[in-house]
Amino acid sequence: MDFEDSQRESSSFDIYKHKIEVQYRLFLDYVTPHIIPRWIAAYLLMLIFMGRIVWAEGWYIVCYTWAIFLLNMFLKFLTPKFDPSIEQDIENDNIESGVGKMDENDEEFKPFIRRLPEFKFWMKTVSSTSIAILCSFFSVFDIPVFWPILVAYFIILFLLTMRRQIQHMLKYKYIPFDFGKMKYGSK
C-alpha cells in the first residue's frame, strides 16, 4: 500500500506540474505578439525593484549585479548573430586564395539577425528583475558597500562597452533597430 500511495502522489504531482507548464506556455503564447505592453510591464517591474532598493537603502550589490547582467543581455541584443568581422576575415582569406570577390552590385541581402532575440531579452529581463526583487528580501544579500563607487564603475563600464559596440556597428554598417527603415507590403 505504501508503494501505491507514493506512486499516486508522484503521478498527481506530475499531473499538477504539467498543468502549470501548460498554463505558463499558454501565457507566453498570449503575450508574445504584444511587444509594447510586455516592455511596459518589464519597466514597471524594474521601477518596483529600483524603488525597493532606494526605499530599503541596501542591497546595492544585488542591484549592481542585476545591472551588469542587463548590460550583458543588451549587448547581446545589439550584436548580430553572425559577426561581420569574422565574415570579413573569411572573405579576405578567399581573396588571398584566389576565389573571386563579388562586386557591390552582386551582394546578397543579409537581414540583421540578433544574437539574443527580443522575446528572450524580455524574458531574461523579467526573470532577472524578479530574482533581484526576491533577493532584496534576504539580509544575506545585503552586503555593505559604498554605492557611489558601484554607480561610477557601472557608468564607466557602460560607456566603454557601448562606445566599442557603436564603433563596431559603424565599421561594419549594420543597424540593429528598424526605425526609419522602409517597410514593404500592401497598404
UniProtKB/TrEMBL annotation:
Pfam families cross-referenced by the UniProt entry: Rer1
Q: Which GO terms describe its biological process?
A: protein retention in ER lumen; retrograde vesicle-mediated transport, Golgi to endoplasmic reticulum
Q: Which UniProt keywords apply?
A: Membrane, Receptor, Transmembrane, Transmembrane helix
Q: How does it sit in the membrane?
A: Multi-pass membrane protein
* Keyword presence, Protein biosynthesis: no
For this protein, the parts annotated as crossing the membrane are: 35-53, 59-78, 145-162
* Superkingdom of origin: Eukaryota
Q: Which cellular components does GO assign to this protein? A: endoplasmic reticulum; Golgi membrane
Cited InterPro entries: Rer1
Q: Where in the cell is it found?
A: Membrane
Q: What does this protein do?
A: Involved in the retrieval of endoplasmic reticulum membrane proteins from the early Golgi compartment.
The family classification in the record reads: Belongs to the RER1 family.
Q: What is this protein called?
A: Protein RER1
What organism is the protein native to? Answer: Pichia kluyveri (Yeast)
**What phylogenetic lineage does the species belong to?**
Eukaryota, Fungi, Dikarya, Ascomycota, Saccharomycotina
